[in-house]
UniProtKB/TrEMBL annotation:
Residues 130-252 form the FAD/NAD(P)-binding domain. This is TIGR01244 family sulfur transferase. Transmembrane segments: none annotated. SUPFAM superfamilies: FAD/NAD(P)-binding domain (SSF51905). It comes from Paraperlucidibaca wandonensis. Residues 7-111 form the Beta-lactamase hydrolase-like protein phosphatase-like domain. The lineage of its organism: Bacteria, Pseudomonadati, Pseudomonadota, Gammaproteobacteria, Moraxellales.
Length: 530
């Protein structure tokens, strides 16, 4: 039976309904149903709105069909939804795939006073007005707030961020390889919020860009003159059946989580022989090189301990190539051969049974046919599929893929001129890395202030991103590139050569740059090229 969320006495929202559930919905007291999910969405076997309509009418429920597309929920949709609510008998149950779009359109209609308020769900109050509101207190949010204040200390800025902890995530790969202390990657959010910035410790629940407001999960709303969207991306652990239940046990780990990276190193040290599988999902993901970095550091340890000959290592990549920039494939292949790694391309991890130490992959053949294969493991380093957060994906700011739609050079929203985005949640086609954020901070800070001053947005992003590929403990291939895979090396060295100096940069210099410069508005080597 589908579950629903009661918004107030007259309104509830639900995930996808099945036809046989309509009689129970009527028995629960509902008198109308609204379908907000387009037919055949995503190509799954969802019931059509026609099937639900017939089942609803058979039990005495009124039915309406108002399909909503993620990222395209605006005032027109809210008015149409409010019109349905006003003409249909209540209580009303609206549904889509997860219920998020139905809730978003209802709350937008309510915030615009298109619906009568109820005692059970009072209209949210505006808690404060700010010059700039930043959604997300990660590297992008903290960094851009500090850079804005360095340029104009008079700005009133708020950061919306629910988490009490702030992490330096690039070092988690090193933690999983036994080369870094996990405690050194964590600090309190309060300690990194720039002085003069107001921290709103809550999650953003809805963007209302037509009214220059952001709704918070605690019922407050804040207004802004400019908005910066940088909440990161969502690690969709549930996208792999059985994975969440076994993470941190049964040899299943992932450096993509703070608490699991030490478990990776524990497993690597303990393994004397057997099979180690390292997975990589379809793009886009955070730091596309991270899945194989974990593999190289593990192999390096096993090689030095004399165990590698007894360990079968397999890299199961949902993609078709080892790395997306061709220049760096040859040096990586040298390490693949050194470590005896089996490469399995077009392998998408879809299911894990931890206690049985078994993983299943959907394998796409040359003819496009998909077959499911079963693999046994002793260690599984799993990387989850990744997507834009719900609050972005189901907002008017999103493109069809769910990312905050921006001009890739100015990072300004293509729909709302006073909105900017950076980091993993924005649609710019760059690698989603910390190095990209470091450059994007300058772009957003300068262009936002240019907009406030009525000047052209002349600071342009070239797509710079960097992936320090830790091919062994003590050596790194520093892959730096921009849009289209164009090489953008910072130093005049052959970027395809593994170097000890780049390891020192990765493991020692860059963490210090992050905590002491980047988060404090000091833009060392972050200026865009002209």
């Amino acid at each position: 039976m589908s579950t629903w969320t009661q918004l107030n006495a007259e309104m509830a929202v639900s995930e996808q309904l099945a036809a046989h559930e309509l009689s129970e919905i009527y028995a629960a007291g509902f008198r109308s149903v609204i379908c907000n999910r387009p037919d055949a969405e995503g190509g799954d076997a969802q019931p059509s709105q026609h099937d639900i309509a017939q089942a609803a009418q058979a039990v005495g429920l009124q039915f309406a069909y108002l399909p909503l597309v993620p990222g395209q929920i605006g005032l027109d949709e809210a008015r149409a939804f409010a019109q349905l609510i006003s003409t249909m008998p209540g209580p009303v149950l609206a549904y889509c795939r997860t219920g998020n779009r139905s809730q978003t359109v209802y709350q937008l209609a309510q915030s615009q006073s298109l619906l009568p308020s109820t005692d059970a769900a009072p209209k949210a109050t505006i808690s404060a007005d700010f010059d700039v509101v930043i959604v997300g207190g990660g590297s992008g949010g903290i960094g851009v707030a500090a850079s804005l204040l360095k340029r104009d200390s008079s700005l009133s800025i708020a950061i919306i961020e629910p988490s009490e902890s702030h992490y330096y995530q690039p070092a988690w790969t090193l933690v999983g390889g036994g080369a870094y202390d996990s405690a050194d990657t964590e600090r309190t959010t309060a300690s990194v919020i720039p002085k003069g910035v107001q921290w709103l410790q809550a999650a953003a629940s809805r963007f209302i860009p037509d009214c220059n407001r952001v709704a918070l999960a605690d019922g407050r709303e804040v207004s802004y003159q400019q908005l910066v969207v940088c909440p990161g991306l969502e690690l969709h652990w549930a996208g792999i059946e059985g994975l969440e239940e076994t993470l941190g046990a049964n040899g299943v780990t992932s450096n993509y989580r703070f608490d699991l990276a030490p478990y990776t190193w524990e497993l690597v040290q303990e393994l004397k022989g057997g099979t180690a599988i390292f997975s990589q999902p379809s793009m886009p993901i955070k730091c596309a090189g991270a899945p194989q970095k974990a593999m190289y550091l593990s192999c390096d340890h096993w090689l030095k301990q004399g165990r590698l000959a007894n360990i079968k290592v397999e890299f199961c990549n949902a993609g078709a190539v080892l790395f997306g920039v061709a220049t760096f494939v040859p040096p990586l292949m040298q390490y693949v051969e050194r470590y005896g790694i089996d490469l399995a391309f077009n392998h998408q991890l879809v299911k894990v049974d931890g206690p049985a130490k078994t993983a299943w992959f959907d394998v796409t053949g040359a003819d496009g046919e998909v077959t499911r294969v079963e693999k046994r493991f002793d260690i599984l380093h799993a990387v989850p599929p990744q997507r834009s957060p719900d609050v972005v994906r189901n907002s008017p700011l999103a493109n069809a893929a769910g990312w905050c739609e921006v001009d890739q050079h100015t990072l300004q929203s293509q729909r709302f001129a006073n909105v900017f985005s950076l980091g993993d949640a924005c649609s710019a086609p760059n690698a989603k890395t910390m190095a990209a954020v470091r450059k994007q901070i300058v772009i957003v800070a300068e262009n936002l202030l240019a907009l406030r001053a009525g000047k052209p947005l002349s600071t342009l992003y070239d797509g710079y991103g960097a992936c320090p590929l830790t091919v062994e403990k003590g050596k790194v291939v520093m892959a730096e590139f921009g849009f289209g895979g164009k090489l953008l090396p910072t130093f005049p060295l052959d970027p395809a050569v593994p170097r000890r100096s780049q390891w020192f940069l990765k493991a020692t210099i860059l963490p210090m740059v992050y905590w002491n410069l980047m988060l404090k508005g000091h833009e060392w080597l972050a200026r865009p090229s002209k």
